[in-house]
Design goal:
By secondary structure, the chain is α+β, with helices and mostly antiparallel strands. The protein has one domain: Roll (PH-domain like). The protein is built from 2 helices and 6 strands. The strands form 2 sheets. Strands 1-2-3 form a 3-stranded antiparallel β-sheet, covered by helices on one side. A hairpin with a 6-residue loop joins β2 and β3. The longest helix is centred in the C-terminal third of the chain and has 15 residues. The protein is globular. The model has no long low-confidence stretch (mean pLDDT 86).
Length: 96
């Protein structure tokens, strides 16, 4: 599975690409969240992820605020989650 997460001027974009049942075919999925709707960014880490220096990044938008069991965008197994969270929050403040 290939993941690409980037922040544009007005939205947060996660592109996922993963193989299908057939060897040379891939499915592609894109998730987008407008930056002015982001209300919280969480960085979590399990004990196993801590051993390998990996984190989870969870982004909440205004439609799910208060319900921390659901997320709008979640990326697992990244090394620089704290830096990405700071970038997302700074871009979100710029939009306000």
């Amino acid at each position: 599975m290939q993941k690409k997460l980037y922040v544009s001027n007005d939205e947060l974009v996660l592109e996922l690409s993963f193989p299908t049942l057939f060897i040379f075919m891939y499915n592609k999925e894109t998730k987008r969240i407008l930056l002015d709707q982001v209300v919280d960014v969480l960085v979590t880490q399990t004990w196993l992820q801590k051993k390998y220096g990996l984190y989870n990044l969870v982004v909440k938008n205004s439609s799910h605020f208060g319900d921390y069991r659901t997320s709008d965008l979640e990326v697992s197994g990244i090394t620089n989650a704290n830096e990405i969270a700071k970038i997302i929050l700074s871009k979100t403040k710029e939009k306000l």
